[in-house]
Design goal:
Elements (H helix, E strand, L loop, with lengths): L2 E9 L5 E9 L7 E7 L7 H12 L3 E4 L12 H13 L1 H17 L4 E11 L1 H11 L6 E5 L18 E7 L7 H13 L3 E7 L23 H18 L2
Parallel strand pairs: 3-4, 3-5, 5-6, 6-7, 7-8
Antiparallel strand pairs: 1-2, 2-4
Helix pairs in contact: 3-4
Protein name: Dienelactone hydrolase domain-containing protein
GO molecular function: hydrolase activity
Organism: Caenorhabditis nigoni
């Protein structure tokens, strides 16, 4: 399927400016189609997330690769990326939340989008982002986290997650996401009465979906082709279900 892409400027309620990338499938020319937000890993928007956006559009979905860091903020070094991400993770309600909803609101402005059929996926830091959107009961049919941070939002009431299917793909050998996070996430989702699926992929470590992960030369980070393939297949299956 033919796919058109373009850069999109938008801003949040705090006046921060962002530059995302949208991927519009050919079938959206004649009618509105389901849409998927893509939230990047800790480095911000890279070719990996752009490729995911393109793949989603090839499946017939409108894809929006969100910019959480800000227009022109594209860390190139690991330390720089963590320094950029840190303040957002430390204050998820006041600093991160407006940026998440800004992307969602920007997505809704496109006439090609069927606003009743929107989902979100995220990688690493982006996994935390999409799970937070579910915690806030954002109007999403589904969220999918890949090797994402699972910690709850401090002091946020455990309100039910009513309308969003939650799917999590976790590396069973990922020591960056400790067992207490995994156990706590299960407890939180049960308390929230969520429709959730948690998949633990054998032998997979952190960042297992990213082909470049082995080049990071960081302990406990690496690509796992089998886990990447299986998690993507499960994601596409979920979208077929919730967008039906």
């Amino acid at each position: 399927m033919t796919v058109t892409s373009k850069l999109i400027d938008y801003q949040d309620t705090d006046g921060n400016h962002f530059e995302g990338v949208v991927y519009i499938p050919e079938n959206a020319k004649n009618s509105s189609v389901p849409a998927v937000l893509v939230f990047p890993a800790f480095r911000g928007i890279t070719e990996f997330e752009k490729e995911r956006g393109h793949q989603l559009a090839e499946l017939g979905y409108f894809a929006f690769v969100a910019d959480v860091y800000g227009k022109g903020v594209r860390p190139t070094e690991r330390a720089e990326a963590f320094a950029t991400m840190g303040p957002l993770v430390s204050n998820r309600v006041e600093k991160l939340k407006p940026r998440l909803f800004a992307a969602l609101e920007s997505l809704k402005t496109f006439s090609e989008v069927d606003q009743s059929k929107v989902a979100a996926i995220g990688y690493c830091f982006g996994g935390l982002c999409v799970l937070d959107l579910a915690r806030y009961n954002a109007p999403l049919k589904a969220v999918v986290s890949f090797h994402g941070t699972l910690k709850p939002i401090p002091d946020l009431p455990l309100d039910p997650i009513n309308a969003t299917a939650v799917q999590v793909h976790h590396g069973d050998a990922d020591f960056h996401i400790a067992k207490d996070q995994v156990d706590g996430f299960h407890e939180e989702m049960r308390a929230r009465q969520a429709d959730f699926v948690f998949v633990s992929h054998a032998k997979a470590v952190h960042a297992f979906t990213e082909p470049e992960a082995d080049s990071f030369n960081a302990p406990g980070i690496g690509y796992n082709e089998k886990a990447a393939r299986r998690s993507w297949r499960a994601t596409v299956g979920l979208f077929h279900e919730v967008f039906a």
